[in-house]
What does this fold into?
Amino acid sequence: MEMTPDCAINMMGTPLGNRMPLPLDANALKNALCIIASSENGTLPDHMADMIGDIITGIYKKYSDKEPRDASPKKYSPSVNKEVHEALIRHGVDLSRCQYWWDVVDILALEKHDYYMASVAQRYAVPQFRDLISFNSESIQRLYGAVKTSTQVTLIDTFNLRIQAAINEYPILAHPTAFDIHDAKIAILDIKNICNASVGPIAQKQNGLMYMLSRFVLSSEFYRKSEEIRFFNPDYKDHHMESIARIESMIKIMEYDEFHRTKGVEFVRNQIVKDFREGRKYNIMNMLASQSINDFDDDMFTFSSGTWIMGCDDNEEREEVCRRLNLSSAAKYKLYNSLNGPSADGSGAPFLVCLKVRDGYPHEHFLKNTPGPLMAWAFSTTAEDTSLRDMLYRRMPQEDARIVLAKRFPRGSAKKE
It folds into this structure.
């Protein structure tokens, strides 16, 4: 991922044909907008969260073609997306029927059954973050027009200023979604280049928002169940029931690496805890990875089913692990004496796992991960190994490079060579 329009993600997207977001998607969008609307120290002005909720409801109605009044659906323009226009021509669609983008969506999906191109067209029918700036309905003005923040700027102007600032600073927020991974069985987003490596509230705000964007693009389709079909456009019921039946029976895994980057961003942490609580009924396994136990909140341990410990930096952290996980004396011994990283003989890396199972008893296991040299070279993150691996990747196919490395360094690392 790069901070460019080519990598744009519009969190205001909806399931195909839906003029309104699903409840869980609306909640995640609200959390993201609250991050944007918060001050540099992470505080949110009074009544801002309530106003954001009302704005979300109002703006989807404004750009819907199903509302009886006060709606302004976005007009179709052939020049906006060449592929969509060519699809209409290819299907022999009378372009005089395509007044609005929602007309294009319905024609391509319901009449021509070209669901992919319909989903591309829908990117231009739904609201975008830039639309939030100009949105100011009569009800929003009536409820919040006189409310001022501690800086004496009105709540509405504060929201608009912060949305505009976010769009200016983060180009991936300012455009329709530029890519689609909903058919991928495995998807990985490398968000290093859209996160802020510095320390402080500004970096926390940016990183929190980027994690929310990534969560949306990777897992929003995970949160679908057949009994929730009432929230979908009834004209698209058969299409969605087919995909929901396929998705809800699968075990889905959502993993967040470098989770320490979200520390201090309350709305992200609350969203993750909600995902932990809700994920089980959607057959979703949520996984978090970071370098310290202090990067995780107590609620995350409460709702987790297992904790994997690869090692600790010092005795202070070991004491904290023992306290928070209530380790037995045997597990404490392994924690202090046996988690020393990958073995010198290449046999693998030991780790300690604490599991919660239905029998109610604590389960602690000392295990060793034995990936083999090929996999070890594929996933090594040490500076020495990645530098050597990247150098070979530039000179030959990646698979060949890993074979060369595995033969030369069968222990899976060149760090001690």
